[in-house]
UniProtKB/TrEMBL annotation:
Compartmental location: Membrane
Organism: Zophobas morio
Alphabetized SMART domains for the sequence: AAA (SM00382)
PROSITE patterns attached to this UniProt entry: ABC_TM1F, ABC_TRANSPORTER_1, ABC_TRANSPORTER_2
Protein's name in the database: Multidrug resistance-associated protein lethal(2)03659
CDD domains: ABC_6TM_ABCC_D2
Domain ABC transmembrane type-1: 106-357, 626-919
Broad class of the protein's primary localization: membrane
Amino acid sequence: MNRQKKTQKPLNPVNRTNFFSKLFFTHTAKLFLKGYKKELIETDIYEVLPSYKSKELGQKLEKEWTKQAEKNRNSLPHLLFKCFGKQYFLLLLTLIIPLTLTAVKPLLTKRFILYFASDRITFPKSEACVYGALLVLIEFGTVLYAENFELGLITFTLKVRAGLTSLIYRRILELESVSIGRSVNLITKDVSEFEECVLMVTFMLRDVLKILVVCCVLYTEVGWLFVILIIIVVMAMTISGILAIFVKKLRVRTLAKTDERLQTTKEVLGGISLIKYYLWGDYYQDKIQGIRKKEVSLLTKIFILLNTNVIISSSFIDISWYIIVVSLISSGVKSNVGTLFVILNSLNALRIPLQHILPRAVLEFATIIAAITRIENFIRTTSRNIDEPSPNIPLLSVKTPHMDFDYCSGITAITGPVGGGKTYFLTILAKEDKKTFAYASQEPWLFPATIKQNILFGSSYDQERYFEVLRVCALLDEVQDSTVVADKGANLSKGQQARINLARAFYKDCDVYLIDDCLCHLDVMVAEFVYEEGLRKFLKDKIALVVTQNLQHIGNSDRVLTLKNGTIKSDDKQLVKKKLTTKENTTAETTKLAEILETDDNVYQEVKASGKVKLEVYQKYFEACGGISKILIALSLVVLTQVLKTSINKLQANWSGTEQLIFKNSTTTKALENRQRMIYVLPILIIAATVLFIANTILYWCLTKKASVSIHKFLLSKIVNSSIEFFNSHFIGNILNRFSEDMLYLDEFVHRALYELLKTIAATTGVIILAAMINVYFLIGCLAFGAIIIILRTIYLRTGRALKRLEFSTRSPLVGHINATLEGLTTITISKKQNLQREEFDNRQDLYTSSSYMCMTCEKAFHLAIDTCAVCFGAFAIVLFLVLDQDISSDNVGLGLLQIFIFTITQEALCRTWTRLENYMTTVERILQYTKQNQENINGVVVTNWPSESEISYQHVYFGYDTTNVLNDLNFVVRSKTKLAIVGKTASGKTSLVSLLLRPYGFKGNIFIDNVDIATLSLDLLRSNVFIISQESTLFSGSLRDNIDPTKKFSDDEIWQALKMVHLAGLFQSLEDKIGQNTKLSGGQEQLVCLCRAIVRKSKVVILDEVTANVDSDTETVVHSVILSSFGDSTVIVITHKFRYILGFDNVLVLDNGTVAQVGDPRRLLEDKNGMFYKLYEKNHKQ
């Protein structure tokens, strides 16, 4: 929707590079150089690769889904197979390369070790050199293939992600309504889960094949005993499968809680002003945090199941080796050191698959099923409201309104009582395919972009028509079209919002204009001008259907329809005029002047941190975990676990050496005694290591779980308690992104990366110690290798960290765009602007996809550099073994090769997890950025028995939102328990005047209530005694009671009495009825529910800001009677554009351009025929 001219981005160099450059990632060198010299910014992101474009992928999936629908066999797996299956299976075919290398490597290792156990005559050194060289080449080929395969797989999932996300968004545009929580969760969580699961399941397939290869190798060495490995693997997979069933169920429940949390958070952000004014902040914080705790509780159960599997699988390698060796001994088979190390190396090749990949893949398979089910159900949804059932009003009695209803040129007024189905009637008409429609909603819909872009809404710019539309909507001299509109137009007055919303409809050249009571938000003079100049003159040759309660507008219309209970009661102009009483349905304005901001290429662009993640971020995270002391305790348990694992490795090497001695001389008594001792010691060490592993895993999760809950609570508290200025300057999409995907990274990735880092540090230390025990030269090599790794990491991290930040920051516009789309879904659908929205969404997603692709490519280039260094270190070790061949035993050679293999893996893992941790910690950094906002100052004095009389006095009050004052030198007094009406032109400052009583902003001057300056009062005390009903009827998800009295301060009887007073009791069966589920309310009925809040609250000061704007004359009478009966002991201030009951007020204050033009008894003010009040009254009286 932010229709800026698309800037030309640099082309991705992968398009212009050769095969070898792609193979070795040399095309990333320029990007690394640029990233090392300066902080990368959004303009440095490459143009998305053609095959990754969101538009083409979305269209491809949508087309295939339509084909499946025609055959009545819609299935998401089948859809993805048809669209992406060929590319995926080509990737899988390349697995033959690493499987071949896996089969050859143990055999070469055996031959190399046997050289050191031989007499050097039958086994020449030249042959050992050949085996050593082949080992190095195989290792390099393995890592080169691994990085390219993983990049191909990851970029494949990026393509699937882009296509699925685009398809989901296209589906959103076809629906009538869908919750923001569900939409965001589908795109940020379900699609991400799907993306992760594709990786894991692919790795699982690869590792199952690797297990088969290892079984073949073991069969050549130990014969039938290889069955032991098969039995253990089958046991591991069976356990994983059982656990996966439970994980699937827990994932579904977790996602439902995430949906609920995000939906509630979105509602809180959207209604933050009222939540602050009503002192409901603590309630909603507790509600969201309660949902969050349930969500984390379910995550805990998932974590327990996942790690139970990991713990079991991790012990299987050592147990398998032990059982195979003991079985060989029991069967009388003599084994040499080469055979035992072939077994050990083969099993170690399965350590990562069995300990990490397979358990996680099997359990993630359950997650992918849950994600597929949710996405598939959403895509299958027909074009209806998927979150709320049909309204409780009857459907229109006409069978097909667009056919039975005859259009006629001119203005057709549509009127009727509250809840009569007027808006619903317009939406039904808009489904007519033979006509084009423009629609202006009753509640103005504006999206984050400039005013000009909001009006054009993707249409071509016609300067003459554009400025004429501004003129007839009274916008020409009032706003600048370069003003950037905040979420929901929060930086504009209500009247300005309504007129921009109307201008969008007027600008579109179409057959039928559907105007849903937009003029009710304007004062009588502006409304009359827009009606005459816009509806009557500008649209004089068009069909205009106007929902209105304004009698003058009805009288001037060419035709009138009356709707009641969803039925067209009459199509007779004179009949309607007789039935309707005089009314002018208007809404007062907020008088906030538009904050003038020059447009940018991306209105959602965030302030992005630069440089390395500060130590303060880690410190905050560790504090959230419970403090650095507890982290050190967890680290100590990790170290102890590693000590035991290192002891196991050393014992296995010694055992292999012992078996070599027995192989040469079976009567060696000492060797036999050593063997017997090891048979008993090794299982004890394995059990002890497993127990410690369980202990440190549980402790670590407890710490990180605490961090997830406390950081969310801290963020939520800081957001809810931020000043109103924060919400005026930050888009909801950006804020909500902190609670969605950033929180997902905190829950799923940050703790995992930190834990892996602790484990790899301990493992690397253990390997270095063992290497030093073999030969001191290895220690030198380890230190040199470590230094090179640190240098490489330093070079990479500047670029990688910046790219990760860009990846996160380019994701926020997607969430913001979805939020804006859902808020204006009806307008988008009726205006047939779905293609415009899709194009904008696809452009935003292309930017996100390109940043993700760059991030992944650079990461894999970095990993290949580390792997190459690791291979060089392995070559160094092999050369060292050959040089020291007379001074080193075969078991130490075997142990050395094993430790080199482990060291290269741990060093690579250390560098990866260290880097990933810093990348992931940028999410914590982003979250903490939003905790540093200015907070509302709630401190102040608490005055007992205040207020008693509720007399209000404004003394020299000045107020402005920027450099321009909205209110100027206000001086007036509202006597105790009087009823004051405030009237005035559009944007004269009426809402700003009354809102200052609740202290949302600072102001100059003094406001006194009962001679107490409100600036000195505690904010809670002030707001607990001043109640406001705003011009926007804001309701929240939940029960009727939760919307009227969520803190449960009042009894059920009091609430029912309030509902009866506003004639809503008959709509509800229980106070636990869910708003929007058990009952669907019209806009006017929602406003009456809001009025019930004031009735039960019985505050000393009550402010009603245009509560009668969207109600009929009978309901207006009810509201007026409520003011007299329920607020008799309160000082009441009413902002109104209606003058039907104006003479019933004790006093009237006329506001003009932020100054008091007149104040006093309304009858006395009418005596001044030159006064503004008289002119306004006369204008209304004529109507």
